[in-house]
Amino acid sequence: EGLNRYQWHSNMHVFQKRLKERQAEDPSFKRFQSVVIMDLEHLSRAQLNSKVYQIIQHQSKIDSLCFPEVLRSCVIINAPTFFSAAWMIIKKFLDPGTTAKIEIYSFRSSGEKRLKELIDEDQLPADYGGKAPSIMETIISQDSDSGANVSRQITKLLHIKAHGTVQMEIVEGEELDVIVFTRSTDGAVFSIKEGKKKEVMVSPTTVRCPEGQSGENDDPFHMCIGSELSGPGIYKICAEAHKGRMSSPDDFLVLGKVRKI
After folding, report:
1. Strand 199-207 with 188-194, pairing
2. Class of the 144-260 domain?
3. Do residues 95 and 64 touch, judged by C-beta distance below 8 A?
4. 59 CB-near residues (< 8 Å, 6+ apart)
5. What pLDDT, in 10s, does the model give residues 99-142?
6. CA 115 → CA 13, 40, 80, 130, 242, distances in Å?
């Protein structure tokens, strides 16, 4: 539900604001269309579940009915080999006109080459070979904590059945806060170790979403499990699930906020 509301808000309000800004810059501007970049790097088979297909079906229906011809092109890059099977399902939700606008590239280099044909370099994020600010720089500029010298963010998704680990590296003159988001009511025990020394920097902390707050329309529960971890260093965030190995896995999004000091 939250994603569907975000889709409606973006089309009705965010795009409207951009239209007005563009018209102010260029009075001859008459038409707005978007080029969507969908980067599938790190996509796993487990993430393509029935819920994802339901969201795609609903949003494509809204776009076709209420916002036709807004999409100029959608470029999918870093598509894994198994995505071809998923694409056969997704195509059924899309009208032929929309399907014709979607291009899929398995290799980053070929995808970036196509993006440079569609988008001016000063508008294309640096992540994809352009000269515009990177996606991370844009996120940081919109972050409410930007006044606290947040210079970058590191995000890692843990799909835990029994245990899992992620690493975050910071350099001299940086410090790190680690925040975990989840809807898991079983939870997991998190600890933080300094990579090379294997020294426990943060004692084991249980991260568990309270009962009654794990619904799809509830904001994910979050907890800061470590703050002001100083660089240089490679920090290893370790998680141990509370439930047994035979249970279904739970998701934990680990966010590292890096500040300059």
Report:
1. antiparallel
2. mainly beta
3. yes
4. 3, 4, 7
5. 999 999 999 999 999 999 999 999 999 999 999 999 888 877 77
6. 26, 15, 19, 9, 45
Tell the burial category of 170 from Cβ atoms under 10 Å away from its Cβ (0-12, 13-18, 19+): buried
Q: How far is CA 114 from CA 40, 74, 130, in A?
A: 16, 11, 12
Amino acid at the residue 251? D
- Residue-wise pLDDT for 197-249, tens only, equals 677 788 899 999 998 888 777 888 999 999 999 989 999 999 999 876 667 78
Longest dimension (CA), the chain: 63
Annotated domain spans of the chain: 33-132, 144-260
The domain defined by 33-132 carries CATH number 1.10.645.10:
no
Name every residue whose Cβ is closer than 8 Å to that of residue 60 and which is 6 or more positions away in sequence. Answer: 93, 94, 95, 98
